[in-house]
C-alpha cells in the first residue's frame, strides 16, 4: 500500500520524464475541459473518501497537481494530451489503492480533532461549572451528600477524559511512525468521549433532581449561570458532532458503489 507521501514522490518522479522534447507544454491542450480524464479520476477518488472536508480537499488538490504535472511531462515527451492524461492516471494506480492509502490519514485527522476537543473542553467545562456556584451558590444550605459524590464523579471523569485525549494525541503522532492502526485509535477515542459525555450528562441531571432549589438559583436565575449554560450547549454540540464523525470513520463502511479502477476513468 502506498501512502500519500509516497504517492507525491511517485508523481514528482513522473514529471521528470521525457523533458528533452522540444514540444511546448501548452501545445495540443483542449481549450475546454482541459484535463477531463485527470479530473474524473480525482473526483472518483474524492467521492470514495470519508473524513474532514479540509483535509480531504487538501489531499485531492495535491493529487490533482501531481497528475497535472505528470501529464505535462508526458506531453513534453511527445504524447498527445489524451494519451498523456491516460498514462498519468494509469501510473498513479487504481482508485481502490489510493482510497486505501488516503483513508488512514483522514481517520487520523478526525481522531486528532476529536482528541483536541476532548482534551480542551472536558477539563475546561469541569472548571467552568464551578464558577456559577462560587457567585450564586447557597453556601449556608448544605447539599445532599449524593450531590457531592456525583459532582466528584463529573470532575474525575472530565479530567480523566482530558488526560486520555492528550495521550491519544501522542499516540496519533507515534502511530504515523510505528504504523499503528489509526482507525482503531480514532474509534477508541470516540467511544471514550461518548461514555464520558453520557456519564457527565446523567450525573448532572441527577444532581439537578436531588438539589433542584440550588440548581435553579445558580443556573436559571443568575446571568453567569445562563452564560455557562450557553457555553456548555455549544461545547457539547461540538464534541458530539466530532464524536459521531470519529465513530463513523472508525466503524462505518466505505461505500462500495462506484468502485472503479484507473483504467475505468481513462479512455
UniProtKB/TrEMBL annotation:
<feature type="transmembrane region" description="Helical">
    <location>
        <begin position="116"/>
        <end position="136"/>
    </location>
</feature>
<keyword id="KW-1133">Transmembrane helix</keyword>
<keyword id="KW-0472">Membrane</keyword>
<protein>
    <submittedName>
        <fullName>Uncharacterized protein</fullName>
    </submittedName>
</protein>
<feature type="transmembrane region" description="Helical">
    <location>
        <begin position="221"/>
        <end position="244"/>
    </location>
</feature>
<feature type="transmembrane region" description="Helical">
    <location>
        <begin position="188"/>
        <end position="209"/>
    </location>
</feature>
<keyword id="KW-0812">Transmembrane</keyword>
<feature type="transmembrane region" description="Helical">
    <location>
        <begin position="156"/>
        <end position="176"/>
    </location>
</feature>
Amino acid at each position: 500500500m502506498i501512502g500519500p507521501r509516497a504517492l507525491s514522490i511517485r508523481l514528482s518522479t513522473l514529471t521528470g520524464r521525457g523533458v528533452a522534447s522540444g514540444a511546448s507544454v501548452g501545445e495540443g491542450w483542449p481549450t475546454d475541459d482541459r484535463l477531463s480524464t485527470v479530473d474524473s479520476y480525482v473526483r472518483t477518488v474524492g467521492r470514495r473518501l470519508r473524513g474532514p472536508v479540509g483535509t480531504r480537499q487538501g489531499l485531492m488538490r495535491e493529487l490533482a497537481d501531481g497528475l497535472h504535472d505528470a501529464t505535462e511531462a508526458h506531453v513534453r515527451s511527445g504524447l498527445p494530451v489524451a494519451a498523456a492524461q491516460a498514462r498519468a492516471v494509469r501510473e498513479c494506480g487504481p482508485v481502490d489503492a489510493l482510497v486505501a492509502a488516503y483513508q488512514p490519514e483522514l481517520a487520523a485527522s478526525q481522531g486528532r480533532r476529536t482528541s483536541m476537543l476532548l482534551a480542551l473542553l472536558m477539563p475546561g467545562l469541569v472548571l467552568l461549572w464551578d464558577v456559577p456556584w462560587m457567585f450564586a451558590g447557597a453556601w449556608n444550605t448544605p447539599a445532599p451528600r449524593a450531590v457531592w459524590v456525583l459532582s466528584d464523579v463529573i470532575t474525575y471523569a472530565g479530567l480523566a477524559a482530558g488526560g486520555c485525549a492528550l495521550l491519544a494525541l501522542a499516540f496519533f503522532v507515534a502511530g504515523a511512525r510505528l504504523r499503528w492502526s489509526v482507525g482503531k485509535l480514532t474509534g477508541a477515542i470516540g467511544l471514550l468521549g461518548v461514555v464520558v459525555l453520557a456519564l457527565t450528562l446523567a450525573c448532572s441531571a441527577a444532581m439537578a433532581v436531588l438539589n433542584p432549589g440550588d440548581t435553579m438559583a445558580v443556573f436559571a436565575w443568575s446571568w453567569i449561570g445562563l452564560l455557562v449554560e450557553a457555553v456548555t450547549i455549544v461545547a457539547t454540540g461540538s464534541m458530539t458532532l466530532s464524536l459521531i464523525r470519529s465513530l463513523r470513520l472508525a466503524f462505518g463502511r466505505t461505500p462500495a458503489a462506484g468502485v472503479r479502477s484507473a483504467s475505468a476513468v481513462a479512455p
